[in-house]
Write a structure and sequence with these properties.
Blueprint (H helix, E strand, L loop, with lengths): L5 H38 L4 H29 L1 H19 L8 H33 L7 H30 L2 H22 L21 H21 L2 H10 L4 H33 L6 H29 L4 H32 L5 H30 L1 H19 L9
Helix pairs in contact: 1-3, 1-4, 1-5, 1-6, 2-3, 2-4, 2-12, 3-4, 3-6, 4-5, 4-12, 5-9, 5-11, 7-11, 7-12, 7-13, 8-9, 9-11, 10-11, 10-13, 12-13
Amino acid sequence: MGASDPQDRRGAVAAYVAVTAAYWAFMLTDGALRMLVLLHFHTLGFSPIELAWLFLLYEFMGMVTNLCAGWIAARFGLTATLYAGLALQVAALVALTRLDPGWAVATSVAFVMVVQGASGVAKDLAKMSSKSAVKLLAPTGEHGALFRWVALLTGSKNAVKGIGFLLGASLLALVGFQASVIAMAVVLAAILVAVMLAMPAGLPRGSRKVPFRDVFSRSGAINRLSAARLFLFGARDVWFVVGIPIYFTAVLSDGTQEGNRTAFFLVGGFMALWIIGYGAVQAVAPRLLGARETTVARTVAQVRLWAAILTLIPAGLALAAALAGAPAGWLTAVLVAGLLVFGGVFAINSALHSFLVLAYAQAEHVTKDVGFYYMSNAAGRLAGTLLSGVSYQLGGLWLCLATAAVMCAMSRVLAGRLPETAPG
């Protein structure tokens, strides 16, 4: 259904812009909410494992949603799932305003887990809708267009999410938890209304004839790529979710309220820089990797190479952390530099995966294949989130990074089994 003539192309570009704007708005609040929850509950004395629990239902519901989202979109249409994702995120933000500081720890954890679960559903409805729309809107007669359009959407999304990390940490330091959540709910609700009014026609409306059993991918290529994706994103979140934010907060804060406030700004700034850098590299990946000359076989070869390079980075950082034994100035500098390099190489791996899933997917099954693929993405984040809290509590930062290296190696092994031609 890609655009070919000039009039169709103008309509496709307008729809692409509307979809991207909606996705940007969502990811800004998603990044801010993650930092708000993590840092707020860390200051309340939650342990690394308890902090990981706050995000587990978020990732689990994202996994379930991705499994079903392809069927939902095929049944009800891409615009319906996009609007539903935005509206559910507004509802989750409003629910968080009911959090009572006087509740017991177990009650607070359970409440936030449920709200985060709703947010996880919202995020993956929005993501699946946006990525599937790109497959349908990208120009069909222009070589490399699909790679460029999906990389621009994903890269710009990650830059916006990075700004959200900084926004969340800054809002927590300046106005507190509840006021921050209320402000984000109001802004996102206004953006939802604006996008609904501005969205052009053209995206599929869905069909009630789609059977639910089609939620599972029948493509061997999609299944293998999904397995590699699971370990790739697990390797990121095993240090990103709990390990590094808590480690840097402990290093940078002296324990006072002012010290915590300064640490929040610095940690939020680093997380924002990492995500923005990751998004920037992902957006320019087609140019770096030669999208105009790309083929599936060439892309598979690049995936194998870049996955091997990625494995070396957390392995080296884990060794440095183990040798240091305790927080040290030189270790902090090495971690910052090394993790930024990891972000760039990770972005290239992710961009290659994002191209391959759309290259392997067939147009009539795109929402189902993309939904299944991002289900494995969410499963990797779920595993990484749990392992982040457990490994940090059991062995500290070096164990988080060593686990990341093992997961990167598994992603490389699975990439070796990817087919070098697209079906059909």
